[in-house]
């Protein structure tokens, strides 16, 4: 079930029961002057920190003991929010994730920003983390490697949702679905409940809808809520973004029998939420491992009709 609530997040959070939420994904205003149509991104320094303490305290209250919170935040305030989470709320630090992107704000004095930060904290040391659900393909085929994939690490390279992309919503800070996909898969299970206290363009709700999670979204701006409803009714053809490493074809896969088994697994492991990427992946397989004249290549025959 996907529930959308219009209102101020601090007030609306008070109506959610204690210890009822499995995962919080929060993308609050960064207080840098973005126009969300409600003035929430233009607060005085101390007012912004007070606001942050209030909504983080409520999120901590509603989290289950094994629950996790991810918080997107700009560099100016990240150290303050870190202190609130660790010192004020006594939460367990898990990761400081860097979302790296190739395009950002240009500067002529100082270096241009090319990343956002994401704080990952859990309510206790015993938290949900499904590593197998978020692994990335290995670079090489080796018998000693876990071919189910490797840990993706704490630097996530995913492109922005550009304004020309068909899934772009009228929201200034829309996040790519691939980022939220990884969080939801790693830190919740099917039928768990995910909370997004700043729903914005509805990315978290859309991802939860496709990954069989329940979700509660809170959003102040009524126009954004209408956009979220339209987005949830759209046909699903795959998430709007992907970590390009998910398309990686391992090197040194010279045994065609082993390669055939792996390629089938690759699609189910890494691309089941990205059906629009399967054909391009198969083409890359055929380029890297072309059909040999002297020996039948099972991989080529298996996928020759799909492209």
Give descriptors for this structure.
about 300 residues; alpha/beta; 9 helices; eight-stranded mixed sheet
What radius of gyration results from the CA coordinates?
21 Å
Secondary-structure element sequence?
A: EHEHEHEEEHEHEHHHH
* Ends distance: 36 Å
Shape: globular
The strands making up the biggest β-sheet line up spatially as 1-8-7-2-3-5-4-6
Structural class by helix and strand composition: alpha/beta
Structure description:
Helices cover 31% and strands 17% of the residues. The protein has 307 residues and is an alpha/beta fold. Strands 1-8-7-2-3-5-4-6 form an eight-stranded mixed beta sheet, with helices on both faces. It starts with a strand and ends with a helix. The mean pLDDT is 86.
Task: Briefly say what this structure is.
The chain contains nine helices and eight strands.
SSE topology sketch:
Layout: E1 2-6, H1 9-13, E2 21-26, H2 45-62, E3 63-73, H3 78-88, E4 92-100, E5 115-122, E6 155-157, H4 177-187, E7 193-196, H5 203-210, E8 214-219, H6 222-232, H7 256-270, H8 278-288, H9 298-303
Parallel strand pairs: 1-8, 2-3, 2-7, 4-6, 7-8
Antiparallel strand pairs: 3-5, 4-5
